[in-house]
Write the C-alpha cells for this entry.
Amino acid sequence: MREPIGHFLDACAGAQSVGHLWRAALRFAASRDVPFVHYRAVGGWADALLNRRGHAHRNHGYPRAWAIAFYRNRWDRDDPSVPLATALGRPFLWRDIPALTDLTRAQRAVIEGAAAVGVRDGLSFRVHGPRGRHGYVGLGFGAEPRQPEPGEIFEIYAAAQMAHLRLLELVPDTREPLGDLSAREREVLQWLVRGLSNAAIAREIGVSAHTVDTLVRRIFAKLGVRDRTTAAVRAVEAGLVRSG
C-alpha cells in the first residue's frame, strides 16, 4: 500500500538512529514500488558514515551479482549518474543518461554491466545539506519498465531530501567550522582553488614554500578533507572562495 508522504516525514522526524531512519526510507521506497535503493555521502563529511567495510554508502535490494561487480570493478568510481546528479541539480531517469552527457568507455561499461545483471532503469538525484554535507540517491525500478509521473518523481525527491536532513541531525558534524579559516588561510585557499602549486602560491603571497605547506595542512584539517581537489570543491560549495 502506498505510504502517505506525511506519514514518512513523521517517521523521519521520530527516527532516533541512522538504522531507524534507513528502515523508514526502505518502507517508503517499497510502497512506491522501488526495490533497489542506494545512498552515499558526498564530500568531506563521508567519513562520518563509514560502515564496518569502510564504505560511506548503503545499498538495499540490488542483485548479488550487481553488488559483487560494484565493489570488484569499482563502479562507485565510474558510475556516470553521480557526477551527472551534481551537474544537473535535478532528478533524472537512468534511461536518459546517454542523452544527457558524453560517456567515457568506463562509464558505458558500468551501464552495460548493470543492465546485464538486471539493473536497467531507475531514478537518481543529489540531496543537499549545510556545509557541503550532500548525498547521492539512486533508486532502481527493478525488471519491470516504468514511466513515473512528474508528480511521483517530485514526491520521492522531496521525501529523500527531508530524510537526508534528518540524517545530518543524527550524524553530528565534528569538523571544525569552515568560518574559522584565518585571512591568510583563505588567501591560500583562493589560490589553491585556481590550481596553483604550493610553490607557486608561496611566490604569489610572498612567503616560504614551507609556510604554505603548513597553511595547506591546516586548511585540509578545517575543511575535513585529504586532497586539494576535495578542498577546492568544499570551499566553492561553502562560498568561502570564488571559483573564477
About this structure: The chain has two domains: 5-170, 178-237. The mean pLDDT is 88. Residues 198 and 212 are 6 Å apart (CA to CA).
